């Protein structure tokens, strides 16, 4: 799409490439953004869990379950909902490309579902209240999502319809992952809209937790509601290929359904939250169980 020079000066440029090389290795910025988000989110979650009376190591240890399962779930969600990208005679990618996570394509709800399953397994094994840990982790989780969204900028993906607004995103032709300098057009930077929305949700959740004392999974459900609210209207701005149901993108339907389900949970769930002493008791019980197992295994 031809553009006037005045418009280009007011646009957001895309990076010339999505990776840098260290010897024979290609380091993808998308992966670095995901890692940076996971680190920042886990630190926030650990501090909040500790402030509630828990052991911050619970958060870090649960990530050993949550991260691998979350990545698998996120990729599966993407491949299942956008299967036409990888399978079929008209698919733009080869089936083997479905395994190339570093090139982008992670469905957040698959990641959240399978990641939560991993945390649930950890909590069950260590006698911890899953709802309390989920509430502590909610602001960190949406923070991680926001930081991870920056990776879409490096990959030139998750942008919206064509536009000439001053903050439009320039998309370039790329050959073997490197820009040719030829501008295809300017588009809504929907990844940026979602990133800013995620950061706003972090602040809203922290205020809600302080002023309204959201517990028993209600803060986590509020995270689901707020994220879905933003994702719903952002999906309506996108025009890239995607699976549709009754004229709407699958992610639009998922966002709407999950918003309603989370709203019902917030309204129906128990008010207040577990006390610091109650959560500390859970952690003490966990520590005592571990010490008992260690002493029994060391006893001849």
How are the SSEs placed, and which strands pair?
Blueprint: H1 5-9, E1 19-22, E2 25-28, H2 29-51, H3 56-81, H4 108-126, H5 130-154, E3 169-175, E4 178-187, H6 190-212, H7 218-235, E5 244-245, E6 248-249, H8 250-268, H9 276-298
Antiparallel strand pairs: 1-2, 3-4, 5-6
Give your account of this protein's structure:
The protein is 60% helix and 10% strand. The protein is mostly helical. A hairpin with a 2-residue loop joins strand 3 and strand 4 (178-187). Helix 5 (130-154) packs parallel to helix 7. It starts with a helix and ends with a helix.
What percentage of the residues does DSSP assign to strands (E)? Answer: 5-15%
SSE succession: HEEHHHHEEHHEEHH
Number of strands: 6
Largest sheet, order of strands side by side?
Answer: 1-2
Instruction: Please indicate the count of domains.
Output: 1
**Average pLDDT reading:** 87
Spatial extent as radius of gyration: 22 Å
pLDDT below 50 for ≥5 consecutive residues: which ranges? 1-8
């Amino acid at each position: 799409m031809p553009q006037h020079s005045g418009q280009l000066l007011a646009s957001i440029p895309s990076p010339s490439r999505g990776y840098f090389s260290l010897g024979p290795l290609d380091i993808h910025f998308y992966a670095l953004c995901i890692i940076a988000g996971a680190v920042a989110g886990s630190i926030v979650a650990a501090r909040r869990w500790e402030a509630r009376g828990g052991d911050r190591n619970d958060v870090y240890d649960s990530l050993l379950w949550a991260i691998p399962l979350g990545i698998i779930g996120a990729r599966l969600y993407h491949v299942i909902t956008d299967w036409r990208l990888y399978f079929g005679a008209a698919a733009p990618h080869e089936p083997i490309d479905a395994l190339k996570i570093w090139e982008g394509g992670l469905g957040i709800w698959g990641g959240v579902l399978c990641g939560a399953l991993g945390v649930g397994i950890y909590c069950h094994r260590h006698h911890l209240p899953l709802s309390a840990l989920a509430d502590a982790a909610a602001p960190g989780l949406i923070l991680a999502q926001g930081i991870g969204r920056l990776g879409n900028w490096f990959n030139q993906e998750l942008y919206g319809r064509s536009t000439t607004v001053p903050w439009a995103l320039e998309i370039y032709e790329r050959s073997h992952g490197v820009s040719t300098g030829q501008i295809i057009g300017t588009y809504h930077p929907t990844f940026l809209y979602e990133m800013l929305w995620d950061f706003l949700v972090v602040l809203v959740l922290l205020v809600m937790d302080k002023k309204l004392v959201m517990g028993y999974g209600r803060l986590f459900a509020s995270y689901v509601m707020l994220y879905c609210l933003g994702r719903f209207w952002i999906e309506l701005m996108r025009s890239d290929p995607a699976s549709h149901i009754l004229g709407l993108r699958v992610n639009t339907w998922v966002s709407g359904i999950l918003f309603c389900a989370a709203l019902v949970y917030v309204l129906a769930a128990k008010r207040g939250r577990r006390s610091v002493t109650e959560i500390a008791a859970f952690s003490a019980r966990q520590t005592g169980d571990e010490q008992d197992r260690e002493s029994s295994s060391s006893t001849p």
